[in-house]
Specification:
- The structure is a homodimer of 245-residue chains.
- Chain A contains six helices and nine strands, in the order H-H-H-H-E-E-E-H-E-E-H-E-E-E-E.
- By secondary structure, chain A is of the alpha+beta class.
- Chain A has one domain: Thiol Ester Dehydrase, Chain A (Roll), CATH 3.10.129.
- Chain A has a seven-stranded antiparallel beta sheet.
- In chain A, a hairpin with a 2-residue loop joins strand 1 and strand 2.
- Chain A is globular, with a radius of gyration of 19 Å.
- Strand 6 of chain A pairs antiparallel with strand 6 of chain B.
- Chains A, B: Its main location: membrane.
- Chains A, B: Its EC number is 3.1.2.2.
């Protein structure tokens, strides 16, 4: 698959005069540059620049509450130094880009994948703070993750409140991220969402996801959306992710 | 509520020099212009111009398949003329704006509602064809509706395919529209979605929703998403809408 993708990208490089592909290494052979990168990540395959924007980094649209929640979980990702030895904790912050190229499986997807205009739904608006501001922290040992999410003014459903579809989008994203982290690439097979309380626009919430069970090709995840102090429950959900054959 | 809203809008008019409110009637008293409009609709309350854009109208981003499906259902909305008498059929096309002000209930919502920047989630991107292109046809007699939906390139989830959250968003929108049409304003209480087949970006699909039952304050809706010839099933879902107290 990698070789196929590299050839495609190579052809794209030849035909797209206006775009700068792998701009920091313009003379290096593309196949080689792809092969030397471990693990395969979107950073390496990003076709428009060598350093795509990581949307999960703090920006000026974040409220103090968002910063506080971010700082709390980010601190859990620090490495501990014991007896002169570095020990990495179980928490890890995942980067977030506006394409999901790392899940490319080639074949019929590939021509769509190369469509330069396609963008990840949750990262498709450039204005910071307008839609989905979020980052995901995963804990591999405990098989769970937490997403800190700030809901922007372009996510309106009922007046002044976040659209049920925007909440579903974040639940799909976070449960899919955890299922993918634990089981490899999955497609969402089922989402069952109970909306317990309307969420005002501008809210900062935590989306907690945990592994329920894995049965054959299906990974079952539970999810709840709460206020950052966890005192208020906004939404509860279950999700099932299916590994493709 | 109306008077309160009018006062708010009046104050907004005073403080926002850059915006033209009710531009076709600049010298008319705002309270009067609001009172003369029946029924209360978003058209009348739209604060930025007297004629907001109806996003459900055909535009140049629509594919031939989208136009064909639109034409099919639009023809069902025509009035029949029998014995010199006009008879309106059961189908009706609903307009679609980028605020849902018509459901304003005042009180705590109002300050949020006046936030000039908030936009309906499904209509928040200006570029035609980039995200959600859709319109909804309702049939009151049969208590059902059909939405024609074209999925734009900014709705990506898995490479080349529509994000599960974008599909959930349309299901929430269409089932909520039908529940609201039959029972008055509702908030989504539950969405249960089975994703049967991945939907490629650019697809045109039909979202069929029908009333299942109404129990006290809850309106239950069934939903399925199919290809326009209805031969392929993409998604099945149920939704429950709750009428606020």
């Amino acid at each position: 698959m990698l070789g196929h993708l590299a050839r495609r990208l190579g052809r794209m490089q030849q035909i797209s005069n206006g775009l700068k592909l792998f701009s920091e290494e313009p003379h290096r052979h593309l196949q080689t540059s792809l092969e030397t990168i471990r693990p395969l990540s979107m950073v390496s395959l990003w076709p428009f620049s060598s350093q795509p924007r990581d949307f999960s980094q703090p920006n000026s649209s974040w409220s103090p509450e968002m910063h506080k929640a971010y700082d709390h979980y980010n601190a859990l990702c620090d490495t501990d130094t014991e007896n002169g030895e570095e020990k990495r904790g179980p928490w890890r912050k995942l980067p977030s880009y506006n394409r999901s190229i790392k899940y490319a499986t080639g074949g019929i997807h590939l021509s769509k994948l190369i469509q330069a205009k396609a963008r990840l739904f949750t990262r498709n608006v450039k204005e910071q703070g307008a839609t989905f501001e979020y980052m995901v922290f995963v804990n591999k040992e405990e098989k769970r993750c937490v997403c800190v999410f700030q809901a922007g003014h372009l996510l309106e459903g009922a007046p002044g409140h976040v659209h049920g579809g925007a909440i579903a989008t974040m639940i799909d994203t976070v449960t899919g991220t955890l299922a993918g982290f634990l089981s490899g690439p999955v497609m969402t097979a089922n989402l069952n969402i109970d909306y317990r309380s309307p969420m005002p626009l501008g809210s900062v919430v935590l989306i907690h996801s945990a592994l329920d069970r894995i049965e054959r090709r299906k990974t079952y995840i539970t999810c709840k959306v709460t206020s950052t102090d966890e005192s208020k429950l906004y939404t509860e959900a279950t999700a099932a992710g299916l590994q493709p054959n």
